[in-house]
């Protein structure tokens, strides 16, 4: 889910790709952001990019 969001997909598109609701995507991303100490998709993309 985080990988798809980091690739630039909208929450709606992530939800459709994974057969879940948009709210599920929002909750999972919120938890991911909290665990990683980040606040945006841009930061998520940077965290998930392997040097």
Question: SSE layout and pairings?
Answer:
Layout: H1 2-6, H2 11-18, H3 22-36, H4 41-48
Question: What keyword list fits this structure?
Answer:
51 residues; mainly alpha; 4 helices; globular
Report on the architecture of this protein:
The protein has a single domain (2-48), classed as Winged helix-like DNA-binding domain superfamily/Winged helix DNA-binding domain (Arc Repressor Mutant, subunit A), CATH 1.10.10.10. Helices cover 71% and strands 0% of the residues. The protein is built from four helices and no strands. It has helices at residues 2-6, 11-18, 22-36, 41-48. The model has no long low-confidence stretch (mean pLDDT 95).
Give the name of the CATH superfamily. Winged helix-like DNA-binding domain superfamily/Winged helix DNA-binding domain
Rg value: 10 Å
Helical segment tally? Answer: 4
How can the largest sheet be summarized? none
Structural class: mainly alpha
- What is the strand content? under 5%
Poorly predicted ranges: none
Helix content: over 70%
What are the secondary-structure elements, in order, as H or E? HHHH
What is the number of independent domains? 1
CATH fold assignment = Arc Repressor Mutant, subunit A
Shape assignment: globular
Q: In total, how many beta strands?
A: 0
User: What is the CATH class designation?
Assistant: Mainly Alpha
Distance between the termini: 21 Å
